[in-house]
Known about the structure:
About 35% of the residues lie in helices and about 20% in strands. α6 (about 165-175) packs parallel to α8 and α8 packs antiparallel against α9. The protein is α/β, with parallel strands linked by helices. It has one domain (about 5-240): Spore Coat Polysaccharide Biosynthesis Protein SpsA, Chain A. A hairpin with a 4-residue loop joins β5 and β6 (about 125). It is built from nine helices and eight strands. Strands 1, 2, 3, 4, 5, 6, 7 and 8 form an eight-stranded mixed sheet that branches.
Amino acid sequence: MQYPKISIITVVRNGERDLENAIKSVVYQSYTHIEFIILDGLSTDGTLDIIRKYEDRIALWKSEADRGIFDAMNKGLDLATGDWVFFLGCDDVLPSPTIIEELAAEFNVPDNIYYGNTYLKNSNAIYTGKVSKWNIALRNISHQAIFYPKSIYKQKKYNLDYKLTADHVYNLELYGRFPGHFCYLPKLISIYNDLGTSSVNVDQQHKKDIVGIVFDNLGGAVGSYFWLRVKVSNFKNSLKGGK
């Protein structure tokens, strides 16, 4: 695939402070085969004015009610037509104007899930490196650093039971089914605001279900290892709380 089409989806609500930087990082890319989609959740600030400012560079945008970030992302998956799809948060940016061109040159297997790294700007750290069945349960691949092929994203949607971390469940289920399709590219794909909602809040349903999800998708050995890690972590936290 010499020039794959890349769908970049941004979902936003009341993001006027940061959205313009995210948009600029997309519309000024050197790569021309980009389909940029923005889904707004009925913003009440100046978000729509910013979108309209760039609408000649945006393939499609809508402003309508949704049931949360992953419902909006599912709508984006329905609308996307690219060979691969990528999500960029409204307060995140692509790190350089050539990064999509650099990445697209590596996309040569149509069913591969390509992923790389993101820079956590508040933690001043690079996340996450290459994953394996032993660590993907412990460290999710950021959805600001992963590209899903059409063969997957048109068939599989995010589970809305998980309000904040449905992307982790999504990746675990995919890794359990298609581990050989995950292809790590050692490139910085995005600069990520790690003070966003999903970074600083706990998804209680995810916390309740995650051990079972790991067992079901990655097997008993990995599930047991993960269960033990959770138990040790909970014990350490209880000791801290008792001090």
